[in-house]
Amino acid sequence: MSTTLQLSRRRFLQGSLGALTLAVTSGGLVTIARAADADAKKYGADSMPGGTVDDPLVFVSIAEDGTVTIVAHRAEMGTGVRTSLPMVVADEMEADWDRVRVVQAEANEARYGNQNVDGSRSMRHFLMPMRRVGAAARQMLEAAAAVRWSVPVSEVRAVRHEVIHQSSGRRLGYGELAADAARQPVPGTEQLKLKTRDDYRYIGKDQVRLVDLEAIGKGQATYGMDMRLPGMVYAVVARPPVVGGKPRRFDSEKALAVPGVVKVVEIPAFQGAPAFQPLGGVAVVARNTWAAIKGREALEIEWDDGPNGGYHSADFRETLAQASRATGKTIRDNGDAVSVWNDAAETERFAADYYIPHLAHASMEPPVATVLIKEGRAEVWTSVQNPAAAQQAVAARLKLKPEDVKVNVLLLGGGFGRKSKPDYVDEAAIVARAMPEGTPVKLVWTREDDIHHDYLHTVSAERLEAVIDQAGKVQSWLHRSAAPTIASLFAEGAKGQQLFESAMSAINMPYRIPNVRVETAEVAAHARIGWFRSVANIPHAFAAQCFIAELAHRAGKDHRQFALDLIGPPRRIDPGDMADTWNYTESPERYPYDTGRLRGVIEAACQGAKWGRELPKGHGLGLAFCYSFMSYTATVVEVAVDEKGAVRVLAVDMAMDCGPQINPERIRAQMEGGAVMGLSLALTSEITFEKGRVKQSNFHDYQVLRHNASPRVIRTHLLNDDHDLPPGGVGEPPVPPVAPALCNAIFAATGKRVRSLPVGTVT
Amino acid sequence: MTQLKINGKTRDVEVPEEMPLLWVLRDELGMTGTKFGCGMALCGACTVHLDGAPIRSCVTPASAASGREISTIEGMASDRVGQVVQQAWVEHNVAQCGYCQAGQIMTAVGLLKKTPAPTEEQIDGAMGGNICRCGTYPRIRAAIKQAAGRLAQGGE
């Protein structure tokens, strides 16, 4: 018998013992499943655990004083979703936002629908359910008023927190109608009268600020790190420095002698694949965080490094480079790219190799969780992207039913994919279980813990080969990627990128090239590989977008025009026509690849940056573009490079087409932030390993962009606010085009090609 | 016993002398507006003022702060410059996740108290120690400029 357990943005089925196979289903989802468990094809929200819920009685309540309480069922990590989804409800129900209160849901996917804030899915999957919630609530209020006045419901209308009887001018506030409205039947989907776009009060209007904005500025907003309970103790963990290691022996005497330290607890090492299990190690519990940190310093531990103790990233880079130059597994094949390459004259062949290192998420709030166990139940307060996964992890650890584990979701001080893995919540549960019942335990990761023990972005060597003829036409294209896979997190020894990774900007490329081949090389993982904001689009788009600029240069053509020619006239491509592709779990009919929209963002970014203008010596403009998470982005970066090779980013123009713009001000914020994060990974960020250990430890050696290096100008261009289109993602799509645009700009400024990240100084 | 004067109020705490002010504020006094980000004075999330100047509370021993005026984000609502800066932060919708913003605001208030009309370079210099992983830097810059303008007009 097998149980279904949602582990991540993808759907993983976990069997009990043995007979597990790593399979790729027809739709391209990676599943770890018994072959017989493959289920029917579902798309979008329907493919997610919990699906969607659109019951107004679940999401909306109205007090007698008229206060409307709306449930935010998805966690806030900085994208604004805790504001934007309730805002959609408020708009449809004609609630006055000033009289709306937002409350955060605890983990309960059966009640609220999917809660995993990941994959740029929140608005994509919940715009329509939240509109239906609001419309149903509005119609129930109108129906209650019509009954009260004994008039046909067609004669009444809800307007801004009250229902009005048009002809008599009678009015009833939402508070006065609340009790009666709650007894009205919930209208079925087919009876709902959704607003037309002209009637929107908040959607697309930038009238609503973040619900937590003022509290944040006053230091009053509560993040996971800020949880406090009476009698609470604090824990930090000494984890194995190498993934898969464990303590050979440890001595806790000196740690226990540190004032304030109350206990030392061993955390068991993970079994099988790492998944979301703790790394293991030794926890020190104390009366405050500082004492716990001092106690940990006093622990004496001898580590057994295990099989990954030989992991050197400098050596592994060579392994990846070799793998990327050998024939790999073909995952897209149109025409005959290999023969065209083999038959081409040397002068028509062009190849380039790119490298993108491991990256750490480094959210400003390190991982943290508080757990209290009492009377056969557990309560958790934490900052997680995936509350249900945290609930399942704690329930499994404590041998409780999930419904006996209450997970309270506090604000996240950043997430970027890291906090969808609840290993730190599991650690807190293990420590809480070792303490006297009823002792709340807050388990804190320090910054060093966060950098040393992250679920890292993969490390990647990308090989591109093209045949470009004398006329500058690209006749063949080969993209071969060598990178450890995220699937290695869930299946021991899994090698080579899976379809869901390759689909991100390697398979899904729309260029009009007669011969296309995409391959992936089978390389092993020696670290915990996880998803990082925009995932495999980072290396794939970096390589492909730099390569197109290189081809344009070789053809002696303007990059922008060359790219537009390569894309060709506007058309809609079924992603399935490129390969048996994954399409971010979405239906290919609903979300085709629309090259017209891609052209639109390229043209807008170039226009914003005044592409083609004269620039001073040492300055350059660079372009790159990407389709990811059902949205289209293009970026133009302007750089200045001085004689010493120091790079200064002067301006970024970012254009995005995500379809309907629900909260444009927050979309622009994500674009600005994506530009900065993209520049961080392009310019300075890199995680390296020696003897299986992460060499970096804090912000002095894992560097991210600071104020003084941040461009002073980031112009955002939002296109195509078409509410007839299904929504695209917003959080991740801004990141991928930034690094290649930067490197293309450096080439324009200096004539030097940077094919390896981070850029550092141009030499 | 260590005596601390925080936002004008005197607090007695029983902590080791070398315990950083950050953990005294957060764990002992429950003043969680001041954030933990790095523990090594590298990110600025823990910024508070000591006698009016921004310092990193994560590396400042409580004993070193004793007998001096400590101001935290919780005290900014009753500080003239603090209020103007907080208001500018709201008007520019600066925060994304918001975790670093208390530290950003504390550094910005310190900057404007010392340098009421900062140049771009002075903003870079003062703010360079405060990291925002969400990338709100352009809005922080705009908010600082607006606050400087308001303060120059003697405004609220």
Q: What structural class do you assign from the helix and strand content of chain A?
A: alpha+beta
How big a fraction of the residues of chain A is strand?
15-25%
Biggest interface reads:
A-B, 65 and 59 residues
Name the CATH architecture of the largest domain in chain A. 2-Layer Sandwich
How big is the Rg of chain A? Answer: 27 Å
Summarize model confidence as the mean pLDDT of chain A.
Answer: 94
Give a structural overview:
- The complex is a heterodimer of chains A (763) and B (156).
- Helix content of chain A is 29%, strand content 23%.
- With 763 residues, chain A is α+β, with helices and mostly antiparallel strands.
- Chain A folds into four domains: 3-41, no CATH class; 58-218, Aldehyde Oxidoreductase, domain 4; 224-307 and 367-444, Aldehyde oxidase/xanthine dehydrogenase, molybdopterin binding domain (Aldehyde Oxidoreductase, domain 4), CATH 3.30.365; 313-360 and 455-750, Aldehyde oxidase/xanthine dehydrogenase, molybdopterin binding domain (Aldehyde Oxidoreductase, domain 4, 2-Layer Sandwich), CATH 3.30.365.10.
- In chain A, helix 14 (499-507) links the parallel strand 23 (474-482) and strand 24.
- The longest helix of chain A is centred in the N-terminal third of the chain and has 28 residues, at 122-149.
- In chain A, helix 11 runs parallel beside helix 12.
- A seven-stranded mixed beta sheet of chain A has the order 13-14-11-21-18-19-20.
- Chain A is globular, with a radius of gyration of 27 Å.
- Residues 1-38 of chain A have low confidence and may be disordered.
- Chain B has 156 residues and is of the alpha+beta class.
- Chain B folds into two domains: 2-75, Ubiquitin-like (UB roll) (Roll), CATH 3.10.20; 76-152, Orthogonal Bundle (DNA polymerase, domain 1).
- Helix content of chain B is 40%, strand content 13%.
- Chain B contains six helices and five strands; from the N terminus they run ββαββαβαααα.
- A five-stranded mixed beta sheet of chain B has the order 2-1-5-3-4, sandwiched between helices.
- In chain B, strand 1 (2-6) and strand 2 (9-13) form a beta hairpin.
- In chain B, helix 3 (80-91) packs across helix 6 and helix 4 crosses helix 5 (120-127).
- The longest helix of chain B is centred in the last third of the chain and has 16 residues, at 137-152.
- Chain B is globular and about 45 Å long.
- The mean pLDDT of chain B is 97.
- Classes of the chains: A alpha+beta (763), B alpha+beta (156).
- Chains A and B meet through helix 6, helix 8 and helix 19 of A and helix 1, helix 3, helix 4, helix 5 and helix 6 of B.
